[in-house]
Write a structure and sequence with these properties.
Helices cover 35% and strands 22% of the residues. With 403 residues, the chain is α+β, with helices and mostly antiparallel strands. It has a nine-stranded mixed β-sheet with strand order 1-2-3-9-8-7-4-5-6, with helices on both faces. An eight-stranded mixed β-sheet has the order 10-11-17-16-15-12-13-14, sandwiched between helices.
Length: 403
């Protein structure tokens, strides 16, 4: 019996050792995860010491969580399939200070491209982005560009001529209306869009936002629009197809629309009319009276409506500033000495509308534009934070005549 018991004990030792090792690994893994998320050194509290790593581990965000993006001169965050960036103009006119902005994020993404890069750019002169595109071309990436004839390839400060010299095909719209889009499609896997022109001013002087979506369906929609302009040379109202669409990405509703072929303004009015509690807006140009009337009606129905206008042009007879201000709505003029360039609505702290589309008749009827509508409270929170930053520096209008 003694020998049998001893043999049984010895044979079970390896099993116990394996189980113990597994449990130790599990405990350390769980403790490390808690430490990464909360900052509390659980292992130290348990009296467990671990060797100091020679390099910091890569922090993987928990699915569904928002991870801040550190940008010295900007703001950013990412979650799941989306990434959002905001410029942070200092007000300085010293170009030597124009470094480490949101252009570094897009340049890094361009530097990672391996196959294709399609660019629809109203303007282009940012040196960091210019070099990233040229580098992509040099390593064999197929680069194609669509731009505006006057503000793009025809602008005195453009760097698009460097693309042409490098053998990159650049197609302009050759018309009076604007090719006003600002989007890129990287390796048929990611779309970047928003209000941000790829320029020095757009990055370091003006208030802008950029939204990146890693989404097959978003790529398909934007690719069809790009091809219509680049391949078919179709701009403005001369379109053979309607490319906008709605889809669900990782449980998040997304809608993409293009002007002038899609029903952008009716969709916008439907979204705003459905607001239950709040509407915030940031507007470079806001002259659409039918949209302004929706805001007035919603305010009368008890919905909180607040907004920021770009100061330049906001006091003209066409602007919606005076009607909204004179109706008692809390609206302000921006505090940026340069340009407040956002085109954003935030509805019920949940849904964001953004893109290149100014709230104007030109955007509705003649320009090439795009908007994205995404319903995600976490994304909305990022835009609300930007709204609050700009609201704090904005000013109440003075000298408006109310009848």
């Amino acid at each position: 019996m003694t020998k049998r018991s001893s043999k049984s004990t010895k044979s079970s030792d390896p099993i116990r050792n394996i189980i113990t090792a597994i449990l130790v690994v599990v405990v350390i893994a769980v403790a490390t995860l808690i430490t990464n998320v909360t900052g509390i050194d659980v292992l130290s509290l348990l009296g467990v010491t671990t060797p100091v790593p020679t390099a910091l581990p890569t922090i993987v965000s928990v699915p569904g969580s928002v991870t801040p993006i550190s940008i010295p001169l900007g703001y950013g965050a990412e979650k799941g399939f989306w990434e959002v960036l905001f410029t942070a103009p200092s007000g300085s006119s010293d170009r030597s200070t124009y470094v480490n902005g949101i252009d570094t994020q897009l340049a890094a993404a361009i530097n990672g491209t391996q196959r294709t890069l399609d660019i629809a750019a109203f303007e282009f002169n940012n040196p960091v982005l210019t070099q990233a595109v040229l580098n992509a071309k040099s390593r064999g990436v197929t680069v194609r560009v669509v731009t505006d004839n006057e503000h793009g390839i025809g602008d005195d400060d453009t760097t698009l001529n460097q693309f042409v010299a490098a053998g990159i095909p650049v197609i302009d719209d050759a018309r009076g209306g604007l090719m006003h889009n600002k989007f890129m499609i990287l390796d048929s896997s990611v779309v970047w869009t928003g209000s941000w022109n790829y320029t020095i001013n757009g990055t370091y002087r003006n208030n802008n936002n950029a939204l990146a979506m890693r989404s097959r369906r978003a790529v398909e929609i934007y690719q069809a629009e790009f091809n219509e302009m680049f391949v078919n040379k179709e701009f403005g109202s001369k379109r053979s197809a309607v490319n906008g669409g709605s889809f669900n990405q990782d449980g998040t509703p997304v809608q993409v629309l293009f002007a002038p072929e899609d029903e952008v303004v009716p969709t916008m009015i439907q979204l705003l009319s459905g607001a239950k509690s709040s509407i915030r807006f940031m507007a470079f140009s806001f002259t659409l009276s039918d949209v302004g009337n929706v805001l007035l009606n919603q305010a009368q129905n008890g919905v909180s409506v607040t907004g920021i206008f770009e100061t330049t042009g906001s006091e003209t007879a066409f602007s919606e500033l005076t009607p909204l201000f004179c109706a008692g709505l809390p609206v302000r003029q921006d505090g940026n000495g340069y340009v407040f360039h956002h085109k954003v609505f935030i509805v019920d702290d949940t849904t964001v509308l953004t893109g290149s589309f100014n709230f104007s008749a030109s955007a509705r009827d003649s320009n090439d534009e795009n908007i994205v509508i995404i319903s995600d409270p976490d994304l909305a929170a990022q835009y609300i934070a930007e709204f609050n930053r700009r609201w704090a520096e904005a000013k109440t209008p003075e000298g408006l005549t109310c009848q």
